[in-house]
Amino acid sequence: MDAPDQPLTSYAPPARRRGYINAMQQIAADRTPAHRARVYFSVPPGLADRPNWQRRLDSIRHSLPNVELLDYRTAFNPDTDYHEQWAALADTLDGLVLTGLHRDKRRPREQTLGPIARQELITMVSTGRPVLLHSMEHGLVPVLDCRPKRIGQEPHQRLRLTIPRDWSPGEPTLQAALAALGPAGSPPVERVPRQGTPKPAHLAHPFTPPR
Fold first, then answer.
1. What's the DSSP call for residue 64?
2. Best label site of 61, 107, 153, 178, fewest CB within 10 Å?
3. How far apart are CA 126 and CA 143, in angstroms?
């Protein structure tokens, strides 16, 4: 008899997950009681005009009840250059939530980010702050746990993210990210052993072409 398949809860190696959890725990430990986390919700053009927009916002706010949740309409002036505004905004953010497009309805766990969302992701991943993918079916999923695939060529390169087949909201990476974005004194997740590496392991992720 064949052995059952192992649950697929992350595409990231265990060492990268441990590095991510430790980094999120450090963010949570450093948060001051007066600080309320700011999170930007990046969405494809036109998504905010769809009937389920409010339901998406409610879903995210349910998972992140104590954050200041921003989106394009509340964070940007449409008459001013986006790139200059994003650079200034990114410096004030504690985390990023993204939602992409479903290019193939037969693959509901796949979402595709456009060039702008991909650059926003790269900016925030490079800082080590929490970056989460939102799906109405799966809730919030750390981008770290998703399988990335670059599509197209620069400067119009897109990023396809695949949510793990057996993803669960109880995964320690998500719980650590939620604690990092919660108020000071949030219950910590179980600490895992630190890995002695010069660069945090969770930052080494193939979102950008090799240099």
1. S
2. 153
3. 13
Report residue 12's pLDDT band, with 50, 70 and 90 as the boundaries.
Answer: very high
Strands (E) across the chain are located at 38-42, 68-70, 95-98, 110-113, 131-135, 139-142, 147-151, 158-162
Taking the C-alpha atoms of residue 133 and residue 63, their distance in angstroms, rounded to an integer, is 12
State the Cα–Cα distance between residues 86 and 104, nearest whole angstrom.
Answer: 30
Q: Are 181 and 67 in contact (CB under 8 A)?
A: yes
Across the beta sheet with 131-135, the strand order is 68-70, 38-42, 95-98, 131-135, 139-142
Distance CA 131, CA 149 (A): 17
pLDDT digits (tens, 9 = 90+) for 130-168: 999 999 999 999 999 999 999 998 888 999 999 999 999
Q: Express each pLDDT in 65-83 by its tens digit.
A: 999 999 999 999 999 999 9
Tell whether the model's pLDDT for residue 198 goes beyond 50: no
Say which residues have a Cβ less than 8 Å from residue 208's Cβ, sequence separation at least 6.
Answer: 122
d(CA 109, CA 148): 12
Q: d(Cα 19, Cα 83) in Å, to the nearest integer?
A: 30
Single out the residue of 12, 6, 27, 13 nearest to residue 180, CA to CA: 27
